[in-house]
Amino acid sequence: MSTSYNENVKVEKLSASHRTIYTDIIIDATPEEVWSVLTDTASYRDWAVFLVDIQGEIKDKTKITVVFQINPRKTKLTTIEHTISVNEGKEFYWAEKGPGGIRDNHHFKVESTGDGKTRFIQSDEIMKGITWLAGGNLSKIYAEGYQAFNRNLKAEVERRFTS
């Protein structure tokens, strides 16, 4: 499904306890510029939604603390610690067990479109644990949250780097 933001979203149910979420958006900036904002975790409090804070540096095999505001209409925050893998300038991700025994494979990726723009991809794979029970609802919430984050990332990058 495409929107006026030049973005895509796809949610798939692979089994009762295995779902994938894929989102992307085109940002009018270079991959290096997008990466610089994506890894400027101290600024998340100023522009990010859904994933409202990352405490720690985006460095390979380091621990970060991720703060989510899953429901934007509520003040409740969910905080989870992850050990991340980083392919510098291209991607960072975690693949760990989270609340409810859910296995979470969450990726943030920047790739050149070849025309001076960047495709930012945020994807997730949730499985096991209580995914069989909560997977449908979580997939919908996550897809909406990822799209909101992507749109705000786009706005912040373009604000910083385009006139």
From TrEMBL:
Gene3D superfamilies: 3.30.530.20. Signal peptide: none annotated. InterPro entries: Polyketide_cyclase/dehydratase, START-like_dom_sf. It holds the Pfam family Polyketide_cyc2. This is SRPBCC domain-containing protein.
